Amino acid sequence: xxxxxxxxxxxxxxxxxxxLARFTTKQIIIAALLFVAAISGxxxxxxxxxxFGNAAQIALTPxxxxxxxxxxxxxxxxxxxxxxxxxxxxLMLNRDGEDILIPTYYKIAGRLVTQPAESxxxxxxxxxxxxxxxxxxxxxAVAARNLKNRVVSKFHSDSGMYLSLTGSxxxxxxxxxxxxxxxxxxLEAYLRYYCAYGTSxxxxxIKKLIGAIFxxxxxxxxxxxxxxxxxxxxxxxxxxxxxxxxxxxxxNYDGAQEIGDEDDSANLKQVVGxxxxxxxxxxxxxxxxxxxxxxxxxxxxxxxxxxxxAGDGVPFYAYAYEKTENxxxxxxxxxxxxxxxxxxxxxxxxxxxxxxELDKDCYNELKNLVVNERRILSKYFxxxxxxxxxxxxRQYSYVLDIAYxxxxxxxxxxxCNCIGTRVATKSSSPAIxxxxxxxxxxxxxxxxxxxxxxxxx
Length: 457
Hints:
14 helices; 41% helix; Glycosyltransferase; 16% strand; globular
């Protein structure tokens, strides 16, 4: 006869009773709950390991935000970072059925009934990158995760690069464009997000993006650039009869018209090159130190940028470079032959300043321009040394970064003053404390202007 599997014990009377009879019903229920909790804990741990366990550690170079003294300088010019941040989210989100992505700009209603409030209905990748940076800096994990997920789903392409633009108002000729500039901005923000909240899936996505942007030597993969050119006797140290035209693919993403800023569209050619402003030296330094790109990439990039200085008497950096049979050929302008693109050069300066490598002559010229002229124009004419073109609005936040990295409060104050003249201060305005641009009596608030200031202050 088989023995019963249920164990028995004997009481003093000799009667055999089940083992469970020794425990009360309450004790049995508690034990069952503890068992279920233990199993749930094991399952949760396994899910955690699956999600986070394979994520590699990435160490980014720390960079302190401006402290109280710097914030005071900004506030003297009506730039109050937290107020600006709150208003930007309130004004620019939840427009046209989109509650996560930020549009390139928003116009508040004009004085006429024919001038209703409107958003661009265009969403730019680099704007989302700065938006993500602001969420991470604010410690808003939920909003940061939602934005990251929306960008991955809306902007991702099979090539590994992300689309530069999406939205219902994107022009046909801009559909499908993927620029290095926008993808570099997203990579920077994605890395900072990953260090705060990332998962192993994010790590794999970041590695794919790095592989699409950089080659096996750690150099940026070149992209097509349209350039204007003409034949002239060039001044010494100027580029040989050529100047690039526009950003990559010649597109002005934010829709700001370059009034009175002539270009050389009569003579165009296309080159395969790299914009100097895309050589984000702090990013390349961190990627190399974390083994995500090849060794020596930072030193090679730094050499390319330093050698891009136009030369004595021209205190700015080139717009782009191309590799030719004779070596590196630098292209000095972004839209007009015979000029240097000041806006692009300022971004290059910001990258150098962060690494304490900014040329003194270039820095002094920038400081003189902002402190004394109180306006940054987009073009520097190589022959005459004069400035022209339109105001480079987006560059003021980069000047704030440069001033802080150079520990120059005078430059910081001057840049804040330039921005402060365009801060909405009317108490009844829906955009109070935000930075605007005015054109034909309409006030437009660009994501890049406001998020750039939020990041820098």
